[in-house]
Amino acid sequence: MAIAGSSNGYTTAALALTLAVVSVSAAVSLYRWRRRGEDLEYRIKELEKSLGSTMEKSASERKGRVKAQQALREALAQTESHDLHSTIYPMRPIGTIRSCFSTRNGTPRQPLLVSLARACLVCDPALVPPASLEGLEEYSHCWIVYVFHLNTDIEKLWRKPSQSKLKAKVRVPRLNGERKGVFATRSPHRPCPIGLTVAKVEEIQKDKVRLSGVDLVDGTPVLDIKPYLPYSDSIQGASVPNWVKEDCLLAVASVTFSDTFSSSITSCWKLIEKKSLYSSAEEFRSLITQVLSWDIRSMSQRNKPQDTLNAEIVYHLVLEGLDVSYMIDNESNILVQDVSLPKNLQDFAGR
User: Fold this and answer.
1) 195: DSSP letter
2) Tell me: the pLDDT tens digits for 35-71?
3) pLDDT tens digits along 214-247
4) What span, in angstroms and rounded, lies between the C-alpha atoms of 16 and 186?
5) Is 327 helix (H, G, I), strand (E, B) or coil?
6) Which residues, 6 or more positions from 191, have their beta carbon under 8 angstroms from its beta carbon?
7) Which parts of the sequence belong to the TsaA-like domain (predicted)?
8) Alpha helices per DSSP H over the chain
């Protein structure tokens, strides 16, 4: 009996010890859990405090920027009232056009006239991250705001504005040189050499926008891109002067190619194929046809005396770095003679 009582005592003691250990362990776990919860709550409060401080700082900086911008606008307005020419708005090109038109000569006078006229807008990654172009591919066309950087009078216009005077009237090709007010035309020679054109969006490739139907010369600086919105950009019932509607005035009768042209284009194509915007020599030939389907000659060339026109005058067009030579007769029939690498692109610029 004594042994049994002793055994029960040991069992009770062991059970009590076990319960005590379990209680201590539970208490320690509960303490750790509470401590962890307190630490987490403390961290949350610290993060909330830091976030609040950051938001206050951001709001303060924004107010400072707004005030600075308001002060700048007020200063510009005051300056403008005294001297209009001293007002400057900071602008930087967001990208540059790589176009099939190597020179101004031959570049269409209006957009979408030459559907095969292709270009690639290469954006400046420092100003235009690829995400900026997301969604543009959903539009069929876009507006492009650019600079007439090859204007012959741009030097005086920008660097010596006091020596540059506004040309109130310019010669209009559709009117055979008759003059119209500059703001009634699309002339590139304007007080501010800024151009606006519309182009078809073919593809978006990271920081590049592939376009077609362009009237932009290679190297054109682009200031902005805006999507074309038919419901607001196309005005039903809009009216224009009759001379604007006369497309046939600049259309040529026919475009044919010499017997030696095919061999010449085959040889030249091997030199530009890898960098070309076109997939084949035949497609490039179609581009030549479309471009020359409109009389691209300058007013002085078109208005030469009749006896001079009867002479075999050879004109030049530079596309993708290739010199295309052609002749045109009195009935506006064009014969494309040859295509070759030009000795110097400057020889053909502006001709």
Assistant:
1) E
2) 777 778 888 888 888 888 888 887 787 777 777 777 7
3) 999 999 999 999 999 999 999 999 999 988 876 6
4) 101
5) strand
6) 157, 166, 182
7) 91-237
8) 2-82, 154-159, 230-233, 242-245, 261-272, 281-292, 299-302, 306-310
